[in-house]
Structure prediction request, 319 residues.
Amino acid sequence: MPALQDARVRPHRQVQVIVALALVLATGALAATADPPRVGAEQLRAWSEADPVHQRGLATVDGVEIGADEVLAKLFSTHTELVYAALESTVRAQVLQLEAERLGVVVDVASLELEVGRVLKTQQDRFAFEAGPDQDFERYVANRYRITPEAYRSVIRREVLEQMLLVRTVRYASRQNERMVCRVIVVKEKEKADELAEKLAEGANFARLAEQNSIDRSAVRGGLLAPVARSSGEPLLVGASALEAGAHAPVEPLTNDGVTLFRLLKVERHLPADPRPYAEQRAELEAELEERPVEAIELAEWDRTMRGRHSIEVKLAKP
Prediction:
């Protein structure tokens, strides 16, 4: 399954309240103490099935419709990597629907609509920059995709809901387990790794050495990684589960695509499992996601867990 880029949702409170009020007026009066409307896996599934792009053929010849299946068959031989990535994404979306439903993960409608508006605004601004401010974005969408602006917004809404459910499901599932917070340093040469290990043994600051020497993306945070389960199978964290808080792991070689790198690791602290239902954790989780979005290492761990939990068979050979 593909890696997830760090994602952040930054709702503006005043706009969120206005959107929520509009939803209340549109759907009828609600009691003052009622929870705000929310959507989850069931709505994502319904929107996916009703996707206007999937409800029509892509072209016709003398009235005979050409659908996505015919186009996909052509792509198999010419763009296999693209098709495989799309397949992995679709498999993940199916697993996500099952897991979000099982865990009771939902998204506030007001937050969803706010994020949909932000995504569309970003697209419109990019379009205006590239095509010119005098060009009409809605007309471009209608000509390119042959759908109305409302239908296009529905497509974006489904994609945004999927992303919002994903980050919440991944983070909530992680919080169900006892976790560890680690720092890492990754370098290209064994000699450099041994040199840094000696400095650490002499009392050097791990975070500072990570900032100065590590080639991992976590270097900007002093090598700090997102919390992951102590039982994690993440290759970057080999040997970490047996360490106490504050302990260092020895230099560990990491091989990926034929390239060998070298890792140093420190366990900062352990976090207890939080078995509370999602509804009871929602506020804390939303604040946590605002401060620290889901990272690729968390998604990779979730993917591994899902392969063990669900029967997944990918019949297309990986390119």
Q: What stands out?
A: Confidence is low (pLDDT under 50) at residues 1-33. The beta strands are 38-39, 59-61, 64-66, 107-108, 179-187, 228-229, 248-256, 259-271. The longest helix spans residues 149-175. The chain has two domains: 13-175, 179-273.
